[in-house]
């Protein structure tokens, strides 16, 4: 089933929106993005894309659109053990894998770690969450990183100062970890979270 240029633009917009936000746009957001005069136009596009198998549409949800490609595409990445969101704990490397939606993964290689501890709760990162990490050896100020300090692994917000590295928790009851530049090794950047309820 071929798509017109406009149908493909609508599908691409929905796909990209899901990739960036983790949920689909509402019909009003689609209408506003394309400047359609009515929601009827949006519904026509959704109907055509759904009938063509390009979209899944849960009519009971205002954010119920899911591009079929996003739904089907998942990738196995290594689940390497635990990372502390709290006092650093040793990362246990093992060879389990976990299936992750492709839209959570950008370029580069990725791995997953199970979060233990409460230090990042104000960022919405809870003990038991699976953190999706992109391999990286450096970071920008403010990014959430997996860092190794004295052979122990921790998940914190990274800040490089003149002569030191500060690893900030997101929990008012905890203090930052402050180390010299060479005492901190960046192992990756947080790009997503998976949570089981």
Main pleated-sheet profile: 9 strands, mixed
State which percent range the strand residues make up.
Answer: 35-45%
SSE order in H/E notation? HHHEEHEEEEEEEEE
Using only CA atoms, what is the Rg?
20 Å
| DSSP summary, beta strand count | 11
How far do the termini sit from each other? 38 Å
The helix content is 10-25%
Topology-level CATH name of the largest domain:
Umud Fragment, subunit A
For this structure, the quaternary state is single chain
What does this structure look like?
By secondary structure, the chain is α+β, with helices and mostly antiparallel strands. It has two domains: 67 residues, Orthogonal Bundle (Arc Repressor Mutant, subunit A), CATH 1.10.10; 121 residues, Umud Fragment, subunit A. It contains four helices and eleven strands. It has a nine-stranded mixed beta sheet. Strand 9 and strand 10 form a beta hairpin. The mean pLDDT is 85.
């Amino acid at each position: 089933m071929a798509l017109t240029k406009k149908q493909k633009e609508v599908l691409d917009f929905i796909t990209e929106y899901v990739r960036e936000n983790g949920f689909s746009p509402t019909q009003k957001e689609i209408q506003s993005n394309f400047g359609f005069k009515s929601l009827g136009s949006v519904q026509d596009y959704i109907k055509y894309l759904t009938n063509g198998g390009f979209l899944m549409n849960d009519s009971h949800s205002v954010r119920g659109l899911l591009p079929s490609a996003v739904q089907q595409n998942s990738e196995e990445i290594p689940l390497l053990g635990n990372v502390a969101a709290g006092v650093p704990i040793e990362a246990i490397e093992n060879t389990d894998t976990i299936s992750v939606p492709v839209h959570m993964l950008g370029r580069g290689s990725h791995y997953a770690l199970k979060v233990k501890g409460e230090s990042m709760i104000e960022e919405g990162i809870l003990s038991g969450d699976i953190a999706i990490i992109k391999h990286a050896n450096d970071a920008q100020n403010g990014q959430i990183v997996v860092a190794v300090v004295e052979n122990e692994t921790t998940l914190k917000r990274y800040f490089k100062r003149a002569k030191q590295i500060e690893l900030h928790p997101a929990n008012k009851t905890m203090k930052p970890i402050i180390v010299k530049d060479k005492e901190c090794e960046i192992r990756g950047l947080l790009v997503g979270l998976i949570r089981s309820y």
